[in-house]
Write a structure and sequence with these properties.
Number of domains of chain A: 2
GO molecular function (chains A, B): L-aspartate:2-oxoglutarate aminotransferase activity
Largest sheet of chain A: 8 strands, mixed
Organism (chains A, B): Microbulbifer pacificus
Oligomer: homodimer
Protein name (chains A, B): Aminotransferase class I/II-fold pyridoxal phosphate-dependent enzyme
CATH superfamily of the largest domain in chain A: Type I PLP-dependent aspartate aminotransferase-like (Major domain)
InterPro entries (chains A, B): AspAT_Ic, PyrdxlP-dep_Trfase, PyrdxlP-dep_Trfase_major, PyrdxlP-dep_Trfase_small
Order of helices and strands of chain A: HEHHEHEHEEHEHEHEEHHHEEHEEH
CATH architecture of the largest domain in chain A: 3-Layer(aba) Sandwich
Keywords (chains A, B): Aminotransferase, Transferase
């Protein structure tokens, strides 16, 4: 199906056929959900031994009684797990509660109210701004929106953010004090930043406000589908450029063990970590060390962690294949949309023809398939091209996903044809 | 021993004898700790069945898969536990992570940056202030200090804060926007607020800034030592006065199950809860529901919870008795100090003669007994009378506590005699 070259009669004919198919599907009363990157039940079950794993022994390897108060940085054994995931020294890791989003929120809070490493608090800038590559992750945007930090977009490319555009913005505006990154299997495009991108990111501190921080949300650090995709080490790049203070790294076991009750990590330079700990010390006596110990027991060595992630990949692989097969079969020779083939992570990002995303999502919803709201991958929920749709294939069982994708491709076609007819 | 009426020779004689005793004790190389209200290992062990209690079944009673993302308010079964502890309706309870201090921090953050229930954010006031009854809890003060919210003290009495002083301050200063309370077994004096106090507190909103909030930290709601001490219900008092929005209640299972990995609760009016949830929604997808479910399984009914708290009381009772016995035996007929006899909670508050606390704590530390730093029970660490010392008897085993208290009473005597000699 090629819209651009189709005659009006052809479009009308397509619309009629698609409309009939759509009406039939609507009668099935489907209730399917592709909205969020939630692990499926069989993925969660991989970690069900967590409850009971302590076998009555609540002592951490270093002798800490994890049941009692104390230890703002988390137990050493958990920090080592975070260090393995982020490939950084354990001394630079703080192991927190169950949510890396919460750690990011407190890092923004720290920068905003108190300033990192002796720098000016962001609130004292005239118009503090974060850069966000788009499409991106709505929960990152929401943190900035809550603090009244403006969001400026830069386009994502196949190798990471458009670095020319990004550097230019930083040169032009000293009030840019942050950058959101999902550097591996980017949410939602699935892209992994290449070496040149990482190196240029590590140099941003040379042209940015001294308070500028890169929020390196490495949510999918070990979430490869087939082979291991290598993300260049931002810490090493920053150390090489004498810009170590400009990077804050985040990770968690949310998509490794149990999504709502994992362990989250932040890694940063000693100066940044001191700023974070100062903020946190007023807020908590320490994180849940018992749950940290459970995780350390589940993954005593990196090899167990890797083996565990292979099991996740085995469950996720057919789901990604299903999505890509539907897209390939229906749109490979068309002008109805573009997408990337991610090698890991939790999403497939699909771009419709200009101005069609909202209608695709509406049609899908009416047919019983919930998709992430149009615009969610852009700040303030506004996709200027109204074309990006984030598909999250992990949660539904394979058969449901297959049905949902049939509905989705049909809705893409119907919305595209109708849009073309309106314009004709 | 009575200092006031002692002759100089008598004081010198006492000093000599006490000095000798002190030197002997210093040679024992003790290492004892009465600093913080930490449960002892045998108390923690009461809840060791938590790990493994799920027996592979991660479903909450309402069907929620606790392993996955979602549910900002916590699971219903956990909220019901919080409702039991705080004696409020479950709909007004949010069950959070492991720390009620964190919930208080976020409540202050909400008031400070965004404002509760449509009220002006506290940061926009000229000089936002919290009132704190003293002696009080240092971690409450630390939250305000971090946000630059000034702290004004009001004296504690045997029935709660000095309400005349408190009301006067609120009448005099519209920038007072908060009040810290530990209403039952107050930290550190052990006092429980009486009905008149609670009723007057519930009426404060009538004379205060509309953004004024009472932080009702009911940390020891069910932590009675002997008989159940009844705290009047602040929610009901506030409803009766049409001031429900002026109260935020907090509790946790930190001193019920495992101190570092319990479940924390906040209870508030629908308008306040909406403000809190708005703030939290940018920060987290939801709390650790698996741990919440563990707690719900441990305490399916209020009766199990009560039985569990009786076991804590059995362990704590001899420790409080030990502290009080040392104080009674040494100081009942003296002018060396005053103290309350708490019916529950975690502390005994001791007031030395004017200006002696710091020296008692220094002497104890040198003899190997760590006490909470002098001044910690006052904002900015400054006890104007340098007399309050918080004794936390829960953590050490009984024999160690007994030794530590021998050191303590000796140090009180030595510091008091020396001070008197200086002044003479």
């Amino acid at each position: 199906m090629r819209i651009e070259t189709a005659q009006r009669e052809q479009l009308q004919q397509w619309e009629k056929e698609l409309e009939q198919q759509y009406q039939r599907i609507c009668q099935h009363n489907l209730s399917l959900d592709l909205t969020r990157g939630k692990p499926a039940a069989d993925q969660l079950a991989l970690s069900d031994s967590l409850d009971g794993i302590l076998n009555g022994d609540y002592r951490a390897p270093d002798g800490t009684d994890t049941r009692n108060y104390g230890g703002l940085e988390g137990i050493a054994a958990a920090r080592e797990l975070g260090a393995d995931i982020l490939q950084v020294p354990f001394e630079e890791v703080l192991a927190g509660g169950s949510s890396s989003l919460t750690l990011m929120y407190h890092a923004v809070l720290t920068g905003y109210l108190f300033g990192f490493a002796g720098n000016q608090p962001w609130k004292d800038l005239k118009a503090p701004k974060f850069l966000c590559p788009v499409p991106g992750y709505d929960r990152h945007f929401a943190i900035c929106e809550q603090f009244g930090i403006a969001l400026e977009t830069v386009p994502m490319t196949a190798t990471g953010p458009d670095m020319d555009a990004l550097e230019q913005k930083i040169r032009d505006d000293n009030d840019i004090i942050g950058l959101w990154c999902v550097p591996k299997f980017s949410n939602p495009t699935g892209v992994t930043y290449d070496a040149d991108t990482v190196d240029r990111l590590a140099q941003l501190a040379k042209i940015a406000n001294p308070g500028f921080r890169i929020f390196w949300d490495n949510a999918y650090a070990i979430h490869d589908l087939d082979h291991q995709v290598k993300l260049p080490n931002i810490r090493e790049a920053a150390l090489g450029n004498d810009t170590a203070d400009s990077v804050l790294q985040f990770a968690s076991t949310s998509k490794v063990t149990h999504a709502g009750s994992g362990v989250a990590f932040v890694s940063a330079s000693p100066a940044n970590l001191a700023s974070l700990k100062k903020q946190m010390s007023a807020m908590t006596i320490g994180p849940d060390k018992v749950n940290q110990l459970r995780h350390a027991r589940l993954f005593p060595e990196l090899s167990q962690l890797k083996e565990h992630m292979h099991k996740h990949a085995e469950i996720l692989r057919p789901k990604f294949a299903c999505v890509l097969e539907h897209l390939d079969k229906n749109f490979a020779d068309s002008d109805l949309g573009q997408w990337e083939k991610p090698q890991g992570g939790y999403f497939v990002s699909f771009n419709t023809r200009l101005g069609c995303a909202q209608e695709v999502i509406r049609l899908s919803a009416e047919a019983g398939v919930k998709l992430t709201p149009a615009g969610a991958t852009f700040p303030y929920g506004k996709d200027p091209e109204n074309s990006n749709i984030r598909i999250a294939p992990s949660f539904p069982p394979l058969e449901e996903l297959d049905t949902a994708m049939s509905v989705f491709v049909l809705c893409v076609k119907l919305a595209s044809v109708r849009k073309a007819l309106e314009a004709a």
